[in-house]
Design goal:
Elements lengths: L2 H11 L7 H14 L7 H24 L13 E4 L2 E4 L8 H4 L5 H10 L15
Antiparallel strand pairs: 1-2
Helix pairs in contact: 1-2, 1-3, 2-3, 3-5
Length: 130
């Protein structure tokens, strides 16, 4: 794991620099133990890991804002608004119960998007030959 790339991505993604470098690196080390993905190239893996790290660092503040209610973590983020700009996520990602946790933050949603395994394409033809 290249922590310099993780820190670079983290500072590009989290423009407010909400988390310290030490927090990011220690969470990245922890998350990298559990997050393994053999089909991703190294750069995409590092980016997905960065989103996972930022998601995990954001969850405690969400719990604090809701008085520790884990029920709040079950319903997902549907939109994000900054100034006059609003982004609606809609139902572009079909969520299983395992994915609900990650759909709580914009970072988690991006993690899900990056880690969605590419589906192989199958074509069915009725052609039987001449």
């Amino acid at each position: 794991m290249d922590t310099s790339i993780i820190l670079k991505y983290a500072h590009l993604i989290d423009k407010n620099n909400t988390f310290s470098d030490e927090d990011i690196v220690s969470m990245a080390e922890l998350c990298s133990v559990y997050f393994k993905n053999s089909w991703m190239d190294k750069e995409k893996y590092n980016l997905a890991l960065t989103y996972l790290v930022l998601h995990e660092l954001t969850v405690p503040s969400l719990l604090e804002q809701t008085g520790g209610s884990t029920d709040y973590l079950v319903s997902g983020v549907t939109s994000k608004k900054e100034g006059d700009l609003q982004i609606s996520y809609g139902s572009s990602i079909k969520k299983s119960q395992e994915q609900e946790y990650y759909s709580k933050t914009p970072y988690g949603l991006k993690f899900l998007e990056l880690t969605a395994h590419p589906m192989p394409m199958f074509f069915v033809s009725g052609y039987t030959g001449d």
